Structure formats: C-alpha cells, structure tokens
C-alpha cells in the first residue's frame, strides 16, 4: 500500500498542481497539522462548530437545538480519505457520528453514491454502508475492540474505480470490488467528503438520552489525498494516484478476516443474501 500527499494549488479554479510523495506501506495520517479551512468548510450547524489548536482540530457539538456537519471544498473522483476522530464520551443511543463520501445532497434519494462510516450511538458500534446509484442497504456493523470516545482513532475510505476499502487504524475492515461486469452496482460519481454529528430518532439508532447533552465529537487531520473532480484532470494515473489500483496483500486479507470474524456483529449479506449479487460472489 502507498500513501500520497497532494497539495492542490488552484488559481481561479483552472489549474491544480499535484505534488505527490509516495510513501511505501504508509497508510497512517501523514500530516495531522493541516488547517481545517484549507480543505473543508462548515456545512450546517455553524454555531455548533468550534475550531481548536489553530484550526487543526474541530469540535462538533450536539444539543437539543442542533448538531453540526462539515464538507470538503472540492469533489473527488478517487482518493484515500483519512480522518482522525473521537466520538462523544456520554453514553447513549441515537447519537450518530460520521465520516463519509457522498455524491450530492440527495441522501434519501435513489440516485446517489455514498460510502459511510457511521457510529451508531456512543458505545463503540461502527457501521459501514455503501450506496451505488441506489438505496444502499449494504450495512455492516462492528463492535470495536476499543472505546472510540477515549482517544482519536484513524478512519479511512479508499475510493478508486477498482475497489473500495474501509480502514480503521490501518486495519482493512471491509472491501468492495468493482464487479460491474457481473451486474454488481458500484459507486462512480465524484464525491464530497463530509463529517457530522447528529441524532436519529429511527428504530435503527435507538433513542437518545437528552439528559446527557451536550454531546461532543472531535475531528483532526484535514489533509486530503485525492484526485479532485475537474474537467481537465485525468484521475486514473497510477503514478500520480497510487491508490488507484489498490490490492490487499495476503497479510492484509488475513488481518481483515480476523477483524471481521471477531468484531462484525451484523452483515447485510447474512440477512439479505438473495437481494445483493455481491453476497454470492467472492468480493475481495
Ligand atoms: C490540541 O493539541 C494538543 C497538543 O498536541 C492535543 O493533546 C489535543 O488533543 C488537541 N486538541 C484536540 C481537540 O484535538
Ligand atoms: C468498473 O469496472 C468496469 C469494467 O469492469 C469499468 O467499465 C467501470 O468504469 C468501472 N467503474 C468505475 C467506477 O470506474
Ligand atoms: C489517463 O491516464 C492513463 C494512465 O496514465 C492513460 O492510460 C490514459 O490514456 C489517460 N487518459 C486521458 C484521457 O488522458
């Protein structure tokens, strides 16, 4: 695996110079000191977002009035997207802490792409999901072997035309291969990168204990390694974009299998096998 730092210097949005440093076997965050405002902006709940440490960290606050969310300034066609986050330490259901990619605002619509990390409640249940021009329904849930509210941990989504991989602290926890030729839907659209803290009243999330408000999440590492969506960009060069052809080696596959065996508590494939063709094909 390789990591890559890309610095986009846009002049009037026309030109971007990509400086790319290849780091073998380095998936870990490379520069945690990047200013939030360089790559992201507050999307909603502005008065519930606080900038810390010269804006190299942000705090999102959820109370009865609002939660908050942020979004990348650019859309990306591919990338290895990293965030460090610490979810709220007050234990409750209903609170959702997220880091995800989304193709547009139609989160409830049928024709958008989305790739999600979502903490459901604050007890360490982490869900991943994937929408590919459809209604999603590809949930997996892991009970993490650590308390994600105690420290920062690193969450990464690798998005390439060949494969999607979710990583937690550099451990691949899920992969989804482009098997379009077998009739399996695969996300294709340029993506925003977003993070948010909100609450859900749905059965899925359970009900929130408002006695414990406010709920506070922290985010760090606002560096973005991605190929921005721009008419002139060729995002398929494996030299400039080493994540383009991700391949998990035998050791990583074994680490992933171990993680899933020990910590996966729900998988859509176990429950909906017939509905999703990827559940009956080898998908790694
Ligand atoms: C701010 O920086 C200090 C020192 O590096 C660090 O310990 C702390 O976690 C940071 N705060 C946040 C909210 O990330
Ligand atoms: C997925 O692979 C097919 C070929 O199998 C290719 O035509 C398509 O462009 C790929 N999907 C994306 C998102 O690039
Ligand atoms: C984009 O880059 C790839 C790999 O370097 C190359 O094969 C392809 O021809 C390029 N496409 C365009 C439109 O320049």
Please provide a written account of the structure.
With 284 residues, this protein is mostly beta strands. It folds into two domains: 1-30, no CATH class; 32-280, Jelly Rolls, CATH 2.60.120. It is 8% helix and 37% strand. Strands 3-6-15-8-9-10-11-18 form an eight-stranded antiparallel sheet. A hairpin with a 2-residue loop joins strand 13 and strand 14. The two termini are 16 Å apart. The model is unreliable at 1-29 (pLDDT under 50). One 2-acetamido-2-deoxy-beta-D-glucopyranose is lined by residues 234, 236-237. One 2-acetamido-2-deoxy-beta-D-glucopyranose binds at residues 234, 236-237.
- What series of H and E elements makes up the topology? EEHEEEEEEEEEEEEEEEHEH
Global mean pLDDT: 86
Which small compounds were modeled alongside the protein? 2-acetamido-2-deoxy-beta-D-glucopyranose
**Rg to the nearest angstrom?**
18 Å
- Tally of contiguous helical segments: 3
Uncertain regions: pLDDT < 50 for 5+ in a row? 1-29
- What structural category do the secondary elements indicate? mainly beta
Name of the CATH class of the largest domain: Mainly Beta
The profile of the biggest β sheet is:
8 strands, antiparallel
Number of structural units classed as domains? 2
- Termini Cα gap: 16 Å
Provide the CATH topology of the largest domain: Jelly Rolls
Tell me, what's the shape? globular
């Amino acid at each position: 695996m390789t990591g890559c730092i890309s610095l986009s210097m846009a002049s009037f949005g026309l030109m971007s110079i990509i400086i790319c440093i290849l780091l073998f076997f380095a998936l870990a965050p490379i520069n945690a000191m990047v200013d939030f405002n360089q790559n992201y902006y507050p999307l909603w709940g502005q008065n519930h977002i606080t900038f810390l440490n010269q804006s190299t960290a942000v705090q999102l606050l959820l109370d009865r009035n609002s939660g908050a969310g942020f979004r990348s300034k650019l859309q990306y066609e591919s990338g290895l997207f990293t965030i460090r986050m610490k979810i709220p330490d007050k234990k409750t259901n209903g609170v959702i802490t997220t880091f995800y990619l989304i193709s547009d605002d139609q989160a409830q619509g049928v024709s958008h792409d989305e790739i999600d990390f979502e903490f459901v409640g604050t007890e360490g249940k982490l869900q991943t999901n994937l929408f590919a021009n459809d209604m999603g329904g590809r949930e997996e849930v892991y009970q993490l072997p650590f308390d994600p509210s105690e420290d920062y941990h690193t969450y990464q989504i690798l998005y390439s035309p060949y494969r999607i991989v979710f990583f937690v602290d550099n451990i691949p926890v899920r992969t989804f291969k482009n098997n379009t030729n077998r009739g399996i839907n695969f996300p294709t659209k340029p993506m925003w990168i977003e993070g948010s803290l909100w609450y859900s009243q749905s059965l899925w999330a359970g009900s929130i204990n408002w006695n414990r408000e406010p709920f506070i999440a922290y985010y760090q590492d606002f560096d973005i390694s991605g190929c921005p969506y721009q008419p002139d960009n060729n995002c398929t060069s494996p030299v400039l974009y080493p994540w383009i052809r991700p391949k998990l080696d035998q050791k990583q596959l074994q680490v992933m299998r171990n993680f899933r065996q020990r910590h996966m508590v729900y998988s859509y494939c176990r429950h909906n096998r017939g509905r999703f063709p990827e559940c009956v094909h080898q998908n790694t």
